[in-house]
Amino acid sequence: MSTSLVMIPTYDEAENVRPIVARTLAATDDSVHVLVVDDNSPDGTGDIADEIAASTDRVHVLHRTVKDGLGGAYLSGFAWGLEHGYDKLVEMDADGSHHPEYLPWMLELADSNDLVLGSRWIPGGEVENWPWFRELLSRGGNLYTRLALGIAVRDATGGFRVFTSRAFERIDLAGVASKGYCFQVDLCWRALEAGLRVVETPITFTEREFGVSKMSGNIVRESLTLVTKWGIDRRLRELRSVVKDHRRLPSVRTNAHAVADRTA
């Protein structure tokens, strides 16, 4: 039986961790487990996660002693999930902005795709309770990413996604340097360059009710810098391939597509 692991990174999410884990378990069957990856939260989130894990064998906790960004937490979670033999690895926020009720459909899509992206910016996707400047920042960042990298993915920055374990056979996780929210673009870009099949499906993203967003100006600057660098590197490699080998690099657009929600 195919097994899936939903990774939920936490730092000071004491108000959110119980409800999001409960919703995840309720929305899925016994083949789906949860891994709370806690970065030594001072508000006791890790202790709460331990209490939940003690009550069910579907929940596990990974305690990290260093806080090195979202990327670092997910890389630790990927390593744990692959070591324990899970077939599908899910990224999902702890704050309730990602709805676990989409998981059955996203996991089903992962049966025929390597990477499934929950997308806010394809038809059917939307955001709730966002101020206009947050939406402008996200839409603008994704537009810049598409133009800089030459990709077709509409929401490369989103953090609700499903990877298959086979995808990591072709994605070089050891080479991932980005630690902040650009980590999401980094993995999507690596998947497309590796020729993996990437699909977007619409989701509703809801702004958190409790706690504080970790988004900052430094995160935005890191993303712009790295995306620009990756785009330039790609074009230089393309030029060298044309001049030296008289052929273009494989397309990073042809393996990406969007699908409607199953309920649409």
From TrEMBL:
Q: Does the keyword Metal-binding apply?
A: no
| TM annotation in the entry | none
Where's the Glycosyltransferase 2-like domain?
6-171
Which SUPFAM superfamilies does this chain map to?
Answer: Nucleotide-diphospho-sugar transferases
Which keywords are on file for this protein?
A: Glycosyltransferase, Transferase
Task: Identify the Pfam families for this entry.
Answer: Glycos_transf_2 (PF00535)
UniProt record similarity statement: Belongs to the glycosyltransferase 2 family.
**What is the name attached to this protein's record?**
Polyprenol monophosphomannose synthase
